[in-house]
From TrEMBL:
GO terms for molecular function: toxin sequestering activity. Residues 72-97 are annotated as: Disordered. This is Prevent-host-death protein. InterPro entries: phD-YefM_TA_antitoxins, YefM-like_sf. The lineage of its organism: Bacteria, Bacillati, Actinomycetota, Actinomycetes, Mycobacteriales. Belongs to the phD/YefM antitoxin family.
């Protein structure tokens, strides 16, 4: 990872961007402190797919229209969500003055 002061970035932007284009990240410093970072674009470009592959996100199980219709009706696929919410509300009510 290269480190480039703000002034050098200002005067030699093309050179710094060439580093990024070649796949290197560039830290931007001001008075010796890192204030920013320029990183290459993800070659896949699809953050959603990457998060799903890392199991940090789950793909949707139904379309947007169906989900919106459920929300408007106030219903969910399972009543367990409502039961958990009600139990949590009861616990919170018991803690209040």
């Amino acid at each position: 990872m290269a480190t480039v002061p703000v002034r050098e970035l200002s005067h030699h932007t093309a050179r710094c961007l060439a580093l990024v284009k070649s796949g290197e990240s560039v830290d931007i410093t001001e008075r010796g402190r890192v204030i920013g970072r320029i990183v290459p674009v993800d070659p896949d470009g699809d953050v959603r797919s990457r998060l799903i592959a890392q199991r940090r996100a789950r793909p949707a199980t139904q379309g947007r229209a169906e989900l919106l219709a459920q929300l408007r009706r106030g219903s969910t696929d399972t009543d367990s969500d409502n039961a958990v919410s009600a139990a949590l509300q009861d616990l919170r009510d018991g803690e209040r003055y």
